[in-house]
Design brief:
Helix content is about 90%, strand content about 0%. It has 4 helices and no strands. The protein has helices at about 5-25, 25-45, 50-80, 85-125. The radius of gyration is 19 Å and the shape is flat. The termini are far apart. Its main location: membrane. GO terms for molecular function: ATP binding; kinase activity; metal ion binding. InterPro entries: DAGK (IPR000829), DAGK_sf (IPR036945), UDPK (IPR033717).
Length: about 130
């Protein structure tokens, strides 16, 4: 049987994690700002359902990667507060993963939004 109170408590803890991510982490704030701009541009270009699904998936993946990266960095700082070459390598790999996903998301955004931008541009010059 499912313990509804445990499920609700888990959602509350997870929600607090999301709030903390965007409240305290500068990079998450940057990702939130850019995602907001992308969503506004998406409304302007009236993206179809498939385009929205792809864009929103990319946004979610970048935010999730940023949350994992933040968790890994906080754990590293807790385990080894001083400077340690292995901890640096772990943190660099973790932030590198976010960068890889962010680059992929930018490319996806350019493919989807860029095609709409080009179509709008051509319709204006004709």
């Amino acid at each position: 049987m499912i313990n509804v109170r445990k499920v609700l408590r888990s959602f509350r803890f997870a929600s607090q994690g999301i709030i903390d991510l965007f409240r305290y982490e500068n990079n998450a704030k940057v990702h939130l700002l850019i995602a907001s701009l992308v969503v506004l541009v998406g409304f302007y270009f009236q993206l179809d359902r498939i385009e929205w699904a792809i864009i929103l998936t990319q946004i979610g993946l970048v935010w999730a990667a940023e949350a994992f990266n933040t968790a890994i960095e906080k754990l590293c700082d807790f385990v080894s507060p001083g400077i340690h070459p292995q901890i640096k390598a772990i943190k660099d790999l973790s932030s590198g993963a976010v960068l890889i996903l962010t680059i992929a998301a930018v490319l996806v955004g350019l493919v989807i939004l860029g095609s709409h931008l080009i179509a709008t541009f051509y319709s204006l010059i004709r």
